[in-house]
Amino acid sequence: MSNLMQAQNLSGKTALITGASKGLGKAMAQALSAAGATTALVSRDAAKLSDVHAEICGAGGKAEVFVADVSSEAQVDQLEKEVSARLGKVQILINNAGINVRRNLIDFTLEEWQSVINTNLTSVFLMSRRFVPHMRGTGYGRILCMTSIMSHVSLPQRSAYSASKAAVLGLIRALALELAAEGITVNGISPGPFATEMNMAIVNNPELNTQFVANIPVGRWGKVEDIGSLAGFLCSDAAAFITGTDILIDGGWTAR
Ligand SMILES: NC(=O)c1ccc[n+]([C@@H]2O[C@H](COP(=O)([O-])OP(=O)(O)OC[C@H]3O[C@@H](n4cnc5c(N)ncnc54)[C@H](OP(=O)(O)O)[C@@H]3O)[C@@H](O)[C@H]2O)c1
């Protein structure tokens, strides 16, 4: 094995991925599994997680399914107990679960606002608080959070989403500084547009889709596998000096 391949080998590591039932979370679970990690697949949907589990195991990987709502303190606490009992300590935490409600600010209900903030931001606090102790004292740990181009720029009808994702960037920086001396890195991945279920309202509207794609400098939606490769690299020993930052993977969206 070359030094580069060795540095990116995650054998012996356990990676927990929230929102692993589909989209980018599923792609990251598959990529980390292919790199040798055992994966803990978390979401609220047991049936979808079971399909992802079958795909990973069918490809020769190791995975376990855990059903939890990561915006609930009680469920995150219970999740930590179950993961510890079935898999032991987690070395890699990927805070990926997220939702978007697209609406003008004045039309938001408080419940809609809170559901976006709780799912996209508070879950990162709840999960990191419970799983950082797994990594402490070992000299290695990786926390990745799915931020967004909407952490850096915005669009109309993205107030709750942009606010939550920009706040995650602040959390990443503070937590990275708290953990930097312990070999635990904390980083964000800011995807541009990827054609996952979250964006089907745009993809399925031909006129809107054409307009939207015309605004992506590379002229197409992103490929989910590219997120998997980046996550694999950031979790590896090769990325040990990268912490407290955010990597944009956006087809040039924010370069304008
Ligand atoms: N797609 C994009 O273009 C894009 C761009 C920038 C950032 N992102 C971010 O990347 C992440 C993944 O996005 P995606 O496009 O893959 O979205 P997606 O296809 O809609 O998947 C979202 C995932 O989050 C899970 N989830 C949502 N609420 C949850 C909760 N309360 N507890 C546990 N799991 C929950 C869902 O699982 P269940 O429904 O099974 O519970 C699902 O697995 C999100 O944080 C998103 O904001 C995406």
Structure characterization notes:
- The protein is built from nine helices and seven strands.
- It has about 260 residues and is α/β, with parallel strands linked by helices.
- It has one domain: Rossmann fold (3-Layer(aba) Sandwich), CATH 3.40.50.
- Strands 3-2-1-4-5-6-7 form a seven-stranded parallel sheet, with helices on both faces.
- Helix 2 packs across helix 9.
- NADP nicotinamide-adenine-dinucleotide phosphate binds near residues 71, 146, 194 and 196.
- NADP nicotinamide-adenine-dinucleotide phosphate binds near residues 194, 196 and 198.
Record the SSE blueprint.
Elements: H1 3-7, E1 14-18, H2 23-34, E2 38-43, H3 46-58, E3 62-67, H4 73-87, E4 92-95, H5 110-135, E5 141-146, H6 159-179, E6 184-191, H7 200-203, H8 206-214, H9 224-235, E7 246-249
Parallel strand pairs: 1-2, 1-4, 2-3, 4-5, 5-6, 6-7
Helix pairs in contact: 2-9, 4-5, 5-6
Return the structural class: alpha/beta
Strand order of the largest sheet: 3-2-1-4-5-6-7
N-to-C order of helices and strands: HEHEHEHEHEHEHHHE
Q: State the end-to-end CA separation.
A: 40 Å
CATH architecture: 3-Layer(aba) Sandwich
CATH T-level fold name: Rossmann fold
Q: Give a list of the ligands.
A: NADP nicotinamide-adenine-dinucleotide phosphate
Shape annotation: globular
- The number of distinct helices, counting runs of at least 4 residues, comes to 9
Strand content: 15-25%
Helix content: 40-55%
- Tally of strands: 7
Low-pLDDT sequence parts: none
Mean pLDDT: 97
- Mind telling me the C-alpha Rg? 18 Å
User: What's the name of the CATH homologous superfamily?
Assistant: NAD(P)-binding Rossmann-like Domain
Top-tier CATH class: Alpha Beta
Provide the domain count.
1
Largest sheet: 7 strands, parallel
